[in-house]
Amino acid sequence: MANHTLSVLVENKPGVLSRVAGLFTRRGYNIDSLAVSPTEDPKLSRMTITVDASRFPVEQITKQLDKLVNVIKIRDLEPSNTVSSELALMKVHSEPGERGEIVGLVEIFGGHIVDVTAEHVTIQVTGETDELLRFEELLRPFGLIEMVKTGVVALSRGARTT
Fold first, then answer.
1. pTM for the whole thing?
2. Tell me: the pLDDT tens digits for 92-127?
3. Of the residues 54, 77, 100, the one at which a domain ends
4. Quick count: other Cβ atoms within 10 Å of Cβ 71?
5. Are residue 71 and residue 114 in the same domain, yes or no?
6. Residue 147's domain spans which residues?
């Protein structure tokens, strides 16, 4: 899969997210990950969109996005020049004898246990997508019950603006 991360600067107005998502729907593009929030300027929002570019050329996607009136700037982020992260919450079945091993994995991956019950632990972990996938694979044998991720957020490295 050839994932591309697009940083789309848009006006912070009602309906913009719907228009962008509608464009993807109309064109038959799939969004793998989507994160949206206001920027340092409250008049603007940044959409970080991850797409599988092996199915749809990024140039085609960016040309279509650029036609939308509320879109200000689009950048296809270079993986080697990008800082990216996402957050995951994972609920895992936890027998009392297994907790030490789960806690050890959480520590290795820099996560936090945010809730504990008699039979379950809920873990919060942040990192790059591949790191979270490795963590998920290691937790599955314990019984991964539920998982939710925020979606990728990303910025260009250094002084260059995204």
1. 0.86
2. 999 888 899 999 999 999 999 999 999 999 999 999
3. 77
4. 20
5. no
6. 83-154
